[in-house]
User: Fold this.
Amino acid sequence: MKTILKTAILFLCVTVSAQQADFKLDSTQLREIYTASLTKGKSYDWLNYLSNKIGGRLAGSEGDKKAVAWGKAELDKLGLDKVWLQPVTVPHWVRGEKEEAHIETNLGNFKVNICALGSSIATSKDGVLAEVIEVQSTEEVEELGDKVKGKIVFYNRPMPADKIETMRAYGASVGQRYNGARVAGKYGAVRAIVRSMNLKIDKYPHTGVMSYGDNADNEKIPTAAISTNGAELLSKLINEGDKIKLKFYFKQSCENLPDAQSYNVIGEIKGSEFPDEIMVVGGHLDSWDLGDGSHDDGAGIVQSMEVLRLFKELKIRPKRTLRVVLFANEENGLGGGKAYAAEAEKNNEKHIVGLESDSGGFTPRGFGFTCNDENFEHIQQWKPLFKPYNIHLFARGGGGADIGPLKKDDNVLLGLRPDSQRYFDFHHTEADVFEAVHKRELELGAATMTSMIYLFDKYGIK
Ligand SMILES: [Zn+2]
Assistant:
């Protein structure tokens, strides 16, 4: 009995000291990763090129083609084991001329800023002038029924300010942007305008994708987003009562062209011990057309590329296969994510980890994880390693739209969670430009992602 006890204690001591040794080694490795990213990182230079030399890159556009060629060329320079393009068929929507809008009243006209929503059809060449009805939701339109006939439906539900994570506030309001025109069109409305997805009151209209679902052609109505200051003004004038006679005018010339060809850009370092266990890091290479797509998702692209570059630079040979994927067409179709997962399924590939960065290039706070309890517990053990870098958020739930289709019962999907407070100042607007991204914040995000991948590579998943 005594011998068994002694052996057990000895075993425990060996395990504890092995764990301590690992902690020391891992701490040193993380320190090296952060130092390399902050002192000789490449993410900011890459973002400068992608934002300023290529700019907006909506699926099917010239910018999209240039971004694919750039991504491939840059990955080729890293000396990875393999770099390739995976074909993706993408929708091709173009904005056309700059949109025009104003509120026409008996007191005079007020110009407001709007932008067409992705997938929307154009107005007639002369635009449209019609009465406006303000609503808070698609459910309200369904209740109003025929009363919206011949009118412009104005969806004005703000993002709820009391949500701490702004992504949740977005989630609570974005349905009216996606479904607003579809529902209004079914009841005979002539147009739909939607309050921009923005917590601030400012001049920027925020674009984003919408869908007509299965509406018949005569139920498809043009739709646009209005800036939050425009939405506030319009609502104020509507609610003045009989004193003000009001109509809304808007004109846009966007168009849905035939599908186009794009590509996922993929680079890989083969695992030295478990090559069949694949870890993917990525973001989406496409962006909306109004700005440079620097936060959404240029930041996620260059951070993901930096993960593999830092592995190379620091001579960390991964045991498991490490892939970066610059996904095509997240914004208006998710074609890239779907094509990647379908190909993985076809080739019987085993993706143990998927990490996405698509929440802006702000100061990293941690990660959101979608995984089973066992893995969530396993990952929590690494939390102390991140303490020196102020990375504290290890939350449940998260990942990313592009990696979503890779979900399996036993794998781990996670998303980098940067501070979210300023994201919707820029998201899908002309303000999403290179200058809006802070160099250190971007680099800290890249280092945080690399560190997490280093730990997944070393310890695997449960
Ligand atoms: Zn995005």
Observations:
- The chain has a mean pLDDT of 96.
- Residues 284, 296-297, 330, 358 surround zinc ion (CB under 6 Å).
- The radius of gyration is 25 Å.
- Residues 2-40 form the longest helix (39 residues).
